[in-house]
Each structure stands twice: as C-alpha cells, then as structure tokens.
Amino acid sequence: MDTTGPVERVLRGIAISLVILFFMFPIFWILLMSFQTNETILRVPPSMVFEPTLQNYRALITGRLETQTSTLEIRFMSNLYNSFFLSATSVAVGLLLGVPAAYAFARLKFRGSEDIAFTLLSFRFAPPLLVLLPLTIYFQQLGLSNTYGGLIWVYQLIVLPLILWIVRGYFEDIPADVEYAYRIAGHDFWATFWKVSLPLAMPGIAAAGLLAFIFAWNNFIFALVLASADKQPVTVGALAFVTASGIQYGQIAAGIVLSITPTFLLAILAQRYLVEGLSLGAVKG
Amino acid sequence: MTVQLSLQGLNKYYGPVLRGVHAVKDLDMEIRQGDIVALLGSSGCGKTSTLRMVAGFEEVSQGKIILAGREIQALPPVRRNVAMAFEGYSLYPTVTVRENIAFALKAQRESDADVRAKVQDVAEMLEIAGILDRYPSSISGGQQQRASLARALVRKADLYLLDEPMGQLEPQLRTLLRGRIKFYIKERGLTAILVTHDQAEANAMADQIAVMEAGVLQQFASPEQIKTAPANLFTGTFVGEPPMNTFAAKAVTEGDALVLRLEDNVVLRYPATDFAPEVRAAILSRGDVMLGLRPYSVRMSRTGGSPAQVLANQWLGDQTHIAASFAGGTLVLVEHDRADVQVGQSIGIALPADALHIFDPETGRAISHGTEMA
Amino acid sequence: MSLSLENIVKRYKSETVLDGVSLDVARGETLVLFGPSGAGKTVLLRLIAGVIDPDEGRIAIGGQDMTGVEPEDRGLGMAFQNFALFPHMDARKNIAAPLTARRMDKASMAETVSRVARMLKIEHVLHHKPKELSNGQKQRTSLARALAAAPDVLLLDDPLRNVDAKLRFEMRLELPRLLKSQGATVIYVTQDYKEAMALGDTIAVLDAGQIHQIGTPEDIYLRPATVEIARLFGDPVINLLDVTPQMVDGRVQAMLSGVAVPLGAAFEQAVGRDCTLGIRAEALKFVPADTAGAIPVTIETEAPLNEKTITLALTRNGREVMISRPATQEAPSMGVAHVLPDPSSLHLFERATGRRIVGAAKATVPQGALQ
After folding, report:
1. By a Cβ cutoff of 8 Å, what residues of chain A touch chain B?
2. B245 Cβ neighbours under 8 A, 6+ residues apart
3. Which stretches of chain C score pLDDT less than 50?
4. In angstroms, rounded to a whole number, what is the distance separating the alpha carbons of residues C341 and C348?
5. Do B312 and C177 touch (CB under 8 A)?
6. Class at the top of the CATH hierarchy for domain A76-284
7. B88 pLDDT exceeds 70?
8. Which chains, if any, share at least 3 CB pairs under 8 A with chain B?
C-alpha cells in the first residue's frame, strides 16, 4: 500500500514540479524583470533571453531615476527604512500589549472576556476605508497625522487582533496543571508567567509576530492616507514609479524584489519555529 | 474440532519493505471453530494490525487468511462475513441504538419479530435494554461501546472480532460482562478473536491466548498453559498479576543435590532426584540461568526457608500482596488470607521445586517448569 | 503538618461539585481520597493546593487558615495525574523547581536533586527533556519534583493512572515506604480500590461531591456504609441480591434460590424490610449438595484469573452470582453446583436508601497466615 513503484515516484515528482512552477512563476518572472530594462521587458513576444543589467537596482539605491525625458528623485531607500521601522515597531508594541492580553483572555475567564476578545477580532472584519475618513480628521486634530507614532498606533488595528488570537490559542494549549505545578513548587504568578507560560508559548508568539510583521509590511491604505512622502513605506512609495513618462516596470520589479526579501527571509527563518511549535504539541499528553 | 480461521505466514509492513515498520512477522495461527482467542500484548505489539488485516481494514503485505475454508485476504471487508466490535465509537449517529444493533439483521432479511427478540436479548445481556430507543449522541461512552458490541454479536458471521470491547466500562461492570459475553459466545458456538491489553480479560474469556510482542507471536496456548508453562521469559513476566519474580542464578551440583546460587548468598538446594534427569542436565549445562517465580506459588514459612525481609504488606480484601527484599532484589508473593507480618520483619521463603521456572538468560527460552522439561 | 477541611463547598455555575466536605488528616498520615471519576476528588485537591478557591468553608494546614494564601506560600508538594512536567526543562531542572523557589544554593540543590533522583531510580535520565522520558520515568520525575523540597504536605493526584499495569503494581508496593520515609502528611487521590487499600492509613470515599465513608481499609471493605461503596471495593464486584428477611422460629433468615439462609440475630431489625443482601464473591464457597443451607446454582462460565478463579452462576430464580476461589482449589466448572455463604460476612443494606443496616460483619479472613 505504501510501497511505491519507480513509475509512480517519477509521476509524483513531475506533478509536484508543475505545482511549484505554477505558484512560483510570478515571483520568478519578477526576479527576471528586475534585471531588465523597460525595453526588453515590453518586448513582444516576451523572451527569457536578455542581457542582465543592474541599472534598476542602482537607480533605487542611489535614489536617482533616469527616464528618457528627465531625472527623477525617488525615496525608495527611505521608504524601505520606513517600512522596516513601522512594521518592526508596530509588532513590538503589538507584542508588548497583545501577549499579556492574550494570556488574560486564555486563563482568566472574566465576565465579558469572550465579547471583548471578539470585538478586538472584529476590527479585522471592518474594511479599513470605513474608518479612514473619521480617523484622518481625528489625527489632524490631534496632530498625529504624518507621525510615526500615529501610524504605529493605527497599525495596531492590524497587528493586535492577529497577535491576540494566535497567541491566546497557544496559551490555552499549555495545560493549566503545568502552570499550577510551578506555582505549587513555590514560584509566584509573575515568575510562572516568565519561566513557564512565555517560553512554552514562544513558538506561537514568534509565528504571530511574523504574521503581524508581514501584514504590517504589506499595508497600503493607512499609510497612503495618513502619511506624507517622508513617512511612507515601500508599498505607497512604489506609486512613484508610475511616472508621467510611463510606468517603470524594471524599477517596480526591483523594488518588489527588495521589499519582499526581508519578509521572505523572516518566513524562512521562522519556519523552523513554526515546525517546532507543532512538535511541541507532543508534550501536552 | 475443525479449523475456522487459519493465518498462514502473515506479514504486515508499514512503509517500504525492510526500511519501514515490520508490524507483524510471519504469523501462523489456527483458530478452532467455537474457540475464543485473545490477542494479548502491549500497544504496538502487532495485535491490532493483525485484527485489522483479518477484518479487511488493513491490506495484507504477505501471507494468507483462510476463514471457514475461503481464502479471504484479497476480499473487501463486506464480503468476508466477519462481525466486528470497535474500540472507539462507530455507531451510525442518525438512527437509534436499536436500529444500529438491528442493522445487520435486517440486511440478513430476518423477520421483524425475530429481529426484535434478538436485539432485546443481546441488549439485556449487555445492560443496555433501557437505552435502545435513544440516539448514540445522547448515551455515555460506555453505553456506546456496548451498543457497538451488541451490533457485532447479534448478527450471523463466520468470525467475531472484538477490539478492546470493554475498555470504556467501569471495572464493576466489566467483570460481570466478561462472564456473560463468554457464555453468550459459547452457548452459540461462535468463533471469536478478542484483542486486549488487559490480561485479566484475556484470562477470563479466552480458550487460547496469543501473546504478541514486537510483531512476533510469543506463545499461543491456553491460559492455564501460559500460567504454568510460559514459553519464554517475555510471556512469563508479561502474563501474570502480580508479575513473575525473576532472579539470576547459577546452577551447580553438590553431592546429590541440585543447587541454585542466587545473589546475596542465597542458596536453594533440592534433591537432584526431584528433577527428571534430562531437566537436570539441561539446567546444569546452561549453568547461568534466570529463575522465574510466580508470586502465588511462593510461600512464607515459619520453619527455615531462605531469609527475606518484608518491605510491604498490602491487604486488598480477598488477598494480600507481600513484597520482601530477597537475593539482591524484590520478591513479591500473594497470600489468600491476611498475613500478620510487619514491614521490616525477617521471614523465611519456601520455594518448592515445582514452583521454579528456569529460563535461558540469553535467548529467554524456557528450560524447565517445576521439575518437568519445558 | 496536619490538614483540616471544614465544610468545603465548590460550585461551577449551577453545578455543585463539592457539597460540604469536611476532613481531618493527622500529621504524617496518608489519607486516600477514593471515588469514581467525576466525584470531585481532583477539585478538592486543587482547593487544598490553592490554585482554585472554595465558595464556602475553610482549609487549614498545620492549624493555619489558608484562606487567601497563594499556592506558592502553602509549602506543598504535588504530583499530577498527567505528570505536568515542564516540557522545556530537563528532568533535573524539573526536579529542582521547588528548590530554586526556596533560593537554595547551587551545591546543596545539586545534592538534593541527586538524592531524590537516586531514591526514585532516575539518576540516569536527569539530562533528558520530558518528551524523551518513558511514561514510567515521567511519573517518577513528577514524584521526585513533588518530594524535592521535603514538603510537610504532599498531594498526589492519581499519580499511577497513566503508567502501565506492571509499573503501577511495582509503585504500589514501593510508595508506602517512600511516603513514610518522608514523614509528610499525604493526600492520595485514586479510583483504583486496590491502590486505596494498599496505600491508605485512612480512606475517604467521595462520591457526587460528598464524603460517604471515612475509615481504615478494613472498615471500608468489611463494613461498607452503602451498597455503592460495597460495589466499588472488591473484584469481582460484590453479589447483590434483593431479599426481605423473615423471622422464622426465632431466627432471622432470608430466602435465596429457594433456600433459607440464616442471617444471625444482629439482623433482627431488618426483619420485614426490603433489603439488598451483599455477599462478596470470595465469601461464597462450593460445598457438597447435602450440606445444610447450601444454595443450588447453575454454572454458566468460569474465568480463571491468575491467583483466583471466578465462576459466573445463576440461582434458581435466575439471579447472577459470582463465586471466587483460589486458583489451586478444585471446584465444579459446569452444571449444577452448591454454594454456601460465609455467615460472618453477609452485608445487609436497606434497599430504598442503600444504607448499611447495622449488623455484625467480622473479618472475612482469619488472621495469621504463616504456615
């Protein structure tokens, strides 16, 4: 039943390759585009054969975009920095607030705890555009628009529910007896939280942090409306490539490659954590 | 009696041959018509894989299964004419317990009155007559398990497979139902295989017990034989409650005595003539042996015996378990009455020659039981 | 230290899990809390540990009221049914957890851990994480952790539940010595009556949130307070037969299978009342047919266990009885046989309430088995 013949193995290999090709093709194509000039990209019919160039990357890094008609100043690198700063800080704030809250929701069944937790989750259901208009007005009055602080605050809408719900599940999976055992051994509540609950939920916290980082990184609409050029992340900054003299596909591709690299690396790094998180489930019994 | 089920060179591999798990190894077994056979072993010993191969839920990697003269290993489960009671819950959730139990009977085109009577009969035996008209979701786990058992027992089949049929029941009910189910099966002359990890259940219900470990059949014999003549050290220590005591010993002759030297200078001396000559020869030629002692064949003695010191004296109502330090280890013995010995007290241990089970310490194989050859 | 519970009540929503439980455990005593699953045993243990709080009642340890005292300040040791080891720490750190809390210095901590580990025979696995331990080793590690700080009160929540039968048996013989050597006051929760009888100085039978009987193993087995307790202690389960005792010629008797069974004068108050007669399987003996008072039964099946054999038989009016005898004793295995109940070990309960009707019930077994 489980013994497979060589033919079956070959067929299975082909099928898996096809699936991988199907899913990876856009990314692969973008990678190719990032090493081409606009002319070779827009060739008809398209071809895989071209002379690779680093000009797109050079333009992004130096911040000078040469088009046929003019030279444009772009802020890609500062956008990249903004993305990184906004996402990392938002996740850090989100974890600081979300992890203890998740623990409270998991362990202390207080009156209305379910409702509050659900309300927080429901922030994810509302279309962001719905809250943007009133938010813009408030932010202007409070002097929060176009500040990092304001953006990080708004980003909590994205990261906090995510962290709360994922980490809560992990805390709930820790048998209460394990925490009790540490308490009874003579350690107080906080020591137990630090030495038992947190380490055991760490894979979940890492996973939640990673996901929250990716969601924050990919956010477009909040930053578009609430931040001006110097505070914008790459997602919004990429709009600059749609210039009066045409769309700079090569630079867009290079920009995409540069901007997905951090999250991509993070995902690969955290994959181990995620797997560990799954195998940690084995200790529950 | 005729053979009802015959397993011939049965093998089960999970994963690729040689590199995967070899769950059942060259199993040969013949089960007579009308016998109850218990497959006994710890989890992962291959007993459940064997049962599932017979039922048809697991493909046979190699070998033959012959049931009532038909080769069935290639047939789908429905065509094997085998009834099975499951360890887990497997009732149809959308119909009542009664309809669940009657399901196969109706398929066998029995008259309504017959079906009713049979269902009532089996339900009363299993103490579930009161819940026949309820739905599976509204009854307890133990009741669901009995309903599954009733559904298997009530139909006609060449073979009945019972997979841990009483695991969910409270112990008080379990002892009673063991007897009733055995009577039900015997009265109708059915052939059944019982898979269990509970040796009391196997002992109580089975005509023959198949002890399995690591995919290998260790011994296939009656409960009595397994008790009095375990084929190897594994069977000896696995079957038996409390477990068999084991001590390493060195066998020598001194004059006309057969002497077993244990640790801590404990010396057991028997008249050599107590043993048949070939037993004596076998023991002596091995020299280093493993001595097995059933807790209920060891006696305390006031007059002499080997010295031991009481570690625990536990009265359990109808019997007493006593543990004593003896020959560098712990010896457990069972008394049917209460024993007035205190923890710490020195006692004598009497080990009659016919209480000795002697094993080869390397292969584990039995050399002798009592004064007889194994 | 002594432990006392006064009228403990615990409710979850509308359900009352513990309904007025009072207990006193003397210093150094082992009290077994016995009951079927769902009886409230684990909840009671958690209340004592202080991880949950009672709705009513008072818990005192060593005479000191524990109300409002956090679990870490109660000075207890506890072992859990599911072991509750810290999965991210190796066995050594697990065992050392109560010591780090007490700020013990490194050297004496290492010494204590190895002493406890030696006692429980787990020295060789101290560097293993819980997931690398076998069930038996996990169980011993959790016990070592509970014992490490030599607590005055030890709570053991069915610690042998999740280990295999052989190990459970070994630990059952080994534990009493271990516990006595610690000198701690022990509360031991189990639903295995053999464990209860083997380990308990005192057994408290808890069912449906109430304590139904407290006594020595002898009290519980020989003088069960209710039918239910009689059912819970003993294997096979006690035979229960409906009878209405009568006074005939100045002697109290009950009819069983068409035979008058003398009950003894102590049962006089039961005359005319609907009762349940309890006869333990080992108190029924096979006798020749012409024995006075022998009850005829038809044997259905025989179940040979290891040291005993149990016969399932039917009385004349179709009631099932189980008869237990030492395996070495010969007895009929089929057809009609006769049994005689040991008159000194009959239990009579009121049928409506299940309560024991006071009467004599001597030890079923003679003292002194040395031969």
Report:
1. 1-3
2. B292, B293, B294, B295, B298, B329, B330, B331, B332
3. 360-371
4. 13
5. yes
6. mainly alpha
7. no
8. A, C
Cis peptide leading into residue B242 (ω within 30°)? yes
Q: What is the pLDDT of residue A124?
A: 75
Contacts of A162 (CB under 8 A, 6+ apart): A94, A124, A208, A211, A212, A215
Chain B contacts to A (CB-CB under 8 A): 13-17, 20, 59
- ipTM, two decimals: 0.88
What DSSP letter does each residue of A57-101 carry, written as one string?
A: HHHHHHTEEE-SS-EEE--HHHHHHHHHHHHHHHHHHHHHHHHHH
**Opening angle at CA B274, ends B268 and B275, nearest 5:** 90
Q: Give dist(CA C121, CA C144) in Å, integer.
A: 10
Q: What architecture does CATH give domain C3-224? A: 3-Layer(aba) Sandwich (3.40)
The nearest alpha carbon in chain B to A3 belongs to: B16
Average pLDDT over residues B270-294: 92
- Across the interface, which of A175, A184, A189 has its CB nearest the CB of C82? A175
A142, A153 in Cβ contact below 8 A? no
pLDDT at B94 exceeding the cut of 90: yes
CB contact under 8 A, A181 and C145: yes
With beta carbons under 8 A apart, name residues in chain C contacting B172.
231-232, 237
User: Can you give the pLDDT at residue C370?
Assistant: 34
- Where chain A has pLDDT below 50, the residues are 1-3, 278, 280-285
The pLDDT tens digits for A101-125 are 999 999 987 888 888 888 888 877 7
> Which residue ranges form the domains of chain B, and what is each CATH number?
3-230 (3.40.50.300), 245-373 (2.40.50.140)
Bin A143: left if φ > 0, else alpha if -120 < ψ < 50, else beta: left
Q: Is residue B333's pLDDT more than 90?
A: yes
CATH number of C229-350, picked from 2.40.50.140, 2.40.10.10, 3.40.50.10490, 2.60.40.1120 = 2.40.50.140
Q: Is the dihedral of CA C256, C287, C345, C264 positive or negative?
A: positive
pLDDT number for residue B30: 96
Inter-chain contact C131–A180, Cβ cutoff 8 Å?
no
Please list every residue in chain A whose beta carbon sits closer than 8 Å to the beta carbon of residue C49.
Answer: 180, 184
Distance, in Å, from the CA atom of A159 to the CA atom of A136, rounded to the nearest integer, reads: 20
Q: What is the pLDDT of residue A275?
A: 62
- Measured between CA atoms, the residue of chain B closest to residue C221 is B317
Decide if B20 and A2 are in contact by the 8 Å CB cutoff: yes
Question: Which residues of chain A make contact with B23, given a CB cutoff of 8 A?
Answer: none
Quick one: which H or E segment has residue C173? helix C165-182
Q: Tell me which chain A residues have a C-beta less than 8 angstroms from the C-beta of C102.
A: 186
Res A37: pLDDT: 85
